[in-house]
Amino acid sequence: MNINVLAMVSLVVLGACMPRNLAPVPAMAPVDPAAAMAPAADDPAAISARVLQQVNILRANIGAPALMPNPQLDAAAAAHSRDMSAQNRAWHWGSDGSSPLDRARRQGFMGTIVGENISETYENDMETLAAWMSTRDTRDVIMDPSASQLGFAFFREPSGKVWWTLLTAR
């Protein structure tokens, strides 16, 4: 028997098994889940909590342990975000030559820094996280299974430009 004929017969038989007289499914308006859940742009605590939640969902997908928020790392991230704005460049060195570890130590953190992600954008937190996840180096900072703590902060300029800093540590 020809394969095309066999395929056609199979479709007819399967079609006969389909239920009939089903009520149409009402159409729903499209909903953007990220927009529905987005915190206000002036609510840093809610934005940080959402980033932590999303990072932990991503980590759970690969079996990595959840990260715990660390206020000392948050403070180091906030200081660096503001400093990058003052320097008008996104880079890992502070205007005083400080490294991510130096900035964390100044805030009293005595653990090990796993990595730091930075960005300057006009995007929101989820778009920034998606950009970090699309690049291997920044994704590795977020997904490193040895990390156990997270610091996250941003600084928004009056123009709307945002400077983001994410630290992972153990």
UniProtKB/TrEMBL annotation:
Residues 1-29 form the signal peptide. Keywords: Signal. Pfam families: CAP (PF00188). It comes from the Bacteria. This is CAP domain-containing protein. The keyword Signal applies. Residues 53-165 form the SCP domain. It comes from Paracoccus aestuarii.
